[in-house]
Amino acid sequence: MVSFFTNAQDIVYNFDTDTEGWVKIASATTEVTQSNGTLVVGTNISNYGGTLSPELNIQDTSYDFLEFVIQNNTTLTGFQLLSYVTGGTVGSTATKTNFEVPADGAFHTIVVAIPSTPGANNGNITNLGVRVTGDPAAGESIVFDAITIKEAAEPSYNGFVKNPNFDDIDGSLGGWSLVGTGCTVAVSTDTNSGTQAAEFTYNANIPSNPPTLFNNYRWSMAPAAIGNIETLTVTWDMKSSDATTLVKVAPRWKMNIVGGSGDRVTYGAPQTATDTYATYSVTRAISNVCADQASPVEGSNCYDTETYDNIELGMSARDGDAGVKVTIDNIISTITGTSLGIESVLFKDDANITVFPNPGNNNITINAPTLVKGIKVINTLGQICIIQSGFSNTLDISQLKSGIYILKILQDNGTSSTKRFIKQ
Fold first, then answer.
1. Domains of the chain
2. Residue 175 pLDDT grade (very low, low, confident, very high; cuts 50, 70, 90)
3. CA 387 to CA 405: how far, in whole Å?
């Protein structure tokens, strides 16, 4: 589950002497000029007006986002970053990422993920463009003090979640995106730990069909597809801005149905936020179990015969009122079961690794010489009971039966070690 990057150098445009190859997107009236160390896009910016970079020819595996230092001198706040088909010069030939810039005439630093490269480009980013998603009035402008094309740092993982603490890219949600209406989501510096958290802001009360912040990362459920005999636990930190307004957040996950069509979507139980940070946890079967239904109908309200080969987490927000905020941080995800595979282990207790508490009941902490990037829990029959991939040294063991288990621990330096622990 660990991604590897090429350590590409940032591509920086400072506009100290000229436009550095940035030109207008096809429009009869828009002008792009350099002035006082900035790139000015103005005159009469049509809906397709904006800027287009010089020919880049860089690989999309090497670069992840753009950082703008931008001044918005229009009355509009909606913008798009565009990745173009080779030779394309209009919006219809590009993939797009929406972003917003305050219309206050001040310079802001905005971080925007590069949209997926058009398939025709075979992973090659040819040009990037920026445009206003509307028609500013004649004489209005947007001004860039700098544009930097960057790669992300190596992402962090916890269980099957990528960037679980929202810290991987400064000023951006780092791959998470909102699906649905009724609220907006942005980065917050009001965190329980680290530097960033995700903050939902309600536009209105949301009694049903809650919007969901999805991870946009799918774990393949290695080593094999699994079904609803497995349980899933999601733990997260959360706080609300209003002590009197009911605000609820629930984990939601979607999984590809093996041999079927589309995804199976499952909700965890919603949890009510308080006005101070607290930790919340939801555990349930990975999809509905027929034995839990009063009138089970396989394939309708329960799915005992289905298996799934990947999974993506989302966090949904409901209730609330206009202006209320709820902040989430530090998501931990674990899948627990007995069909995760069989593994024989040559056990040798590693004296360089400690487990605390041992015996344990709910959560254990693993202290190792280098970062822990993967954990398997194996019972005395050789069954893999828990798989947790990602850089985390904590493990939720609350769903395990009492007994003796072996931890197989993979460290960041490539060392694989074993350690015995007891579940109370």
1. 11-150 (2.60.120.260), 157-335 (2.60.120.260), 354-423 (2.60.40.1220)
2. confident
3. 13
